[in-house]
Design goal:
Chain lengths: ~220, ~220
DNA sequence: ATTTTTTTTTAGATTTGTCTAAATATAATT
DNA sequence: AATTATATTTAGACAAATCTAAAAAAAAAT
């Protein structure tokens, strides 16, 4: 029931890449984990013998129920630690990920449950991503179109409803991608355009049409 | 400037065993780290090439200034995390050590400095051991004879002023050693004996003479 | 339906930290 | 001082996680 940090990272990466219930390719994993395809193959064989995933050579990989369970626990730890770092230790948004990558491998589940309680059982992390509970069930994300995002509320882009190259081209131009953190500074009533700010980038304006097609997640936890 | 968890554990163990400025033996280290003498020898050679310690085959080992610096940073992290676990997450005394053994290897120094501040810059951990500051200087311990320890105050044995075999024999009988956590339950006026409790052990009574020769550290931080 | 390209796997090494068993050095005892 | 006992080191192996280069399979392109 205990896995090495490396194995945990593989499970987490597969979980993230395995959007619906599709299989994940060796190369995609290698890219995600910044390692070689050969290393990935080696590790997949080990994880398979531990029944954490289904894997047939050349056929890609998919987590088993057990594998998903483990992945969700890592994600739970990661996000709770991020929340702690931002809310209690006053870290900025962008600097917490790297530290949480280390903290998520601390094994004690008692620790993480106590931390959860200490933080007031938050349901989303500072980026707006949902935090799985102790049983591993992850609440559905509070997912809104950018049009409905409250002003000044930090949010993370989680999906785009229009996948046309024209739109993706525009997103690229604005440096917006899945996971991009942003906030709406203000709305202009005249033409319904929105002023957007992304950390460490100049502010810019987008059209109502673009905003309508951008879905974001944000923290809805009520702070006492 | 970054060392593996294993190396950090070696440095910490040597630091603790190297009471004054004596050399530490291979066997003592092996015992402390629950490993074989052969493994210790292997590791000492590696740490020597990194100039973290002085080591001559068969002659024992001693930390260099750099080695001490690293050890003190690990100890700082360990004790700050222990404080966090007890004070913020309501863990008991005895359960925090194991978790802190993992947390102490999280690398970010920014994290630990923020944690320090968040906790109100405590100067001793829950066991009464002093917490080194960011520069690695460790405050002198509040060191009292057991005779002067306030009743019910938890403390840790840090030294014994009498090293006779007769005394060490008695200490062994009572399961008391350096680092043992204990508290005085009550004093008996008639013969000045003390009732002592050690977590997870039956309470027992010791003589005034023994108490006079036992030095303990305890937390003197004033809690608001 | 071949050929070419891309993806994936195998083969063989490497590093880190560990082990056991055997050899050697030091310390203790007679 | 010689012998016995203890402590320490060397030699040789192993598991985990990684790598590069080569081989094999699958997919894409002609």
């Amino acid at each position: 029931m205990k896995y090495s940090p490396s194995k945990e990272n593989y499970l987490k990466a597969i979980f993230h890449l395995q959007q619906d219930d599709s299989v994940v390719s060796t190369n995609a994993l290698a890219r995600q984990l910044n390692t070689s395809a050969a290393s990935v193959t080696d590790m997949l064989k080990k994880l398979k013998t531990q029944k954490l995933l289904q894997y047939q050579p050349y056929r890609g990989v998919r987590l088993t129920a057990e594998g998903k369970k483990v992945a969700l626990q890592i994600i739970r730890k990661h996000r709770l630690w991020e929340y702690f770092l931002v809310e209690k230790l006053a870290f900025g948004w962008e600097e917490v990920h790297e530290i949480a990558e280390e903290l998520e491998h601390i094994s004690s589940t008692k620790l993480i449950d106590r931390l959860d309680h200490f933080l007031g059982n938050p349901r989303t992390d500072p980026h707006g991503d949902p935090i799985p509970d102790a049983q591993g069930s992850m609440p559905l994300v509070q997912q809104t179109s950018l049009i409905d995002l409250p002003v000044r509320k930090q949010a993370a882009v989680i999906s785009v409803s229009n996948q046309s190259t024209a739109m993706l081209d525009l997103l690229k131009h604005h440096h917006i991608g899945i996971g991009t953190k942003l906030a709406v500074n203000r709305r202009f009533e005249f033409d319904q355009t929105l002023e957007i700010s992304i950390p460490n980038r100049p502010v810019f304006t987008i059209s109502e049409l673009l905003a309508a097609n951008l879905f974001v997640a944000y923290d809805t936890t009520t702070t006492a």
